[in-house]
């Protein structure tokens, strides 16, 4: 019996142009605040924990932006910003709770000092301070030692102990914060490098954070310390890269904790239509996209992320590139970033078979699909933003029980120069994954025919990809790479699926 699914699938495809996730379906995210007074307001809100809904406040990047804007602030605003950026030991005048209101003490190793107070709401026990120092020493050995990143920029005697890295314990749970790092002074002759100090919660109580305190400490210390490392490469780097790699490194240090899984529902594993390089302080896209760097490290080893940061760095011998340029520079010869991104998007169709821990990850929000039988044809049109994809899930009807049945997938996409890609991911009844890349010509057109029957196909995923990395960089006020304007946004793909029979 012939059934036409054109109307049904076209409806599903059309819906992807305006998904149910209204908060994220926008060609350009909310503009980056550029007026110094707005940046100051953002920093205040982050330290207050004032963010929409139940999303985690982002303090480190808010303080980074405030540090960048500091020279443009005047009068009371300047003084207020300096209080916000000050260390807890610099005084108790900060209305946002940064200043200790009691005398502090410290416990140090050869490279790190942990500071605490013994009374007030910020008090931390000596035992927890020792635990924090022990964890931070392991973080240092992992990130600076084993993985080979630069140590954070030394701060002279600002913390009182000859250039050691300073961490302050404070009550942060009431502000919705885990921890944060703040840049403090620029390095002479290297205006994009800065030292930093970090602040972590004073006990990571299960009642506030929901997990085992030492585990929450481990992932937070790994994440925030990596921000201090980043400030020694380029503290002005694109924020999506800073947060995604800091969340990725949690997995390198504390793989057993899996705290970063909480962000996957807003990363590209699930929200495939949101661009990879999106940064939004009111959402968690940038945290959830640690999986891109997980994919890179699976392909090329953990050292690929260090190569990315060296490509972004400002020291002699570094690349001085913005995020996507640095990623491209770090890839092996003859591996193109658009091709790699398309394969990453295809891997996300079957996370359980693509990543060691992927069986615990969410699956994509499917853009459309359904069951197809003999003679069925489905078609539709969809627009895709840069560095994003739409996934379609197609299943053969039981009547397709002969090996002669196949599916022809035709694509009429944007021009080749905009980096369109189409990948077919076939899951076999035995659990194997077979990937077919559809060759597209200069005009963006192409087709491929693959098995589509119950003997050889349990499910087929068609992944349409806009892999463009072309930008007009500069002060366009976007939250994308180089604060730039994507040149190939919301490109149109016309798709056609037809069940055919090979005689």
Plain-language structure description:
By secondary structure, this protein is α+β, with helices and mostly antiparallel strands. The chain folds into two domains: 6-19 and 366-501, Sandwich (Jelly Rolls), CATH 2.60.120; 31-237, no CATH class. The chain has helices at residues 6-16, 36-48, 60-69, 75-85, 126-146, 206-209, 213-234, 239-253, 285-288, 290-300, 303-312, 323-330, 337-347, 351-354, and strands at 104-108, 112-117, 165-170, 179-187, 190-201, 368-372, 377-384, 388-396, 405-412, 420-427, 433-437, 445-451, 459-466, 471-472, 485-486, 491-501. Helix 2 (36-48) packs antiparallel against helix 3, helix 7 packs across helix 8 (239-253) and helix 11 packs across helix 12. Keywords: Hydrolase, Metalloprotease, Protease, Signal. This is MXAN_6640 family putative metalloprotease. One of its GO terms (molecular function) is metallopeptidase activity. Residues 1-22 form the signal peptide.
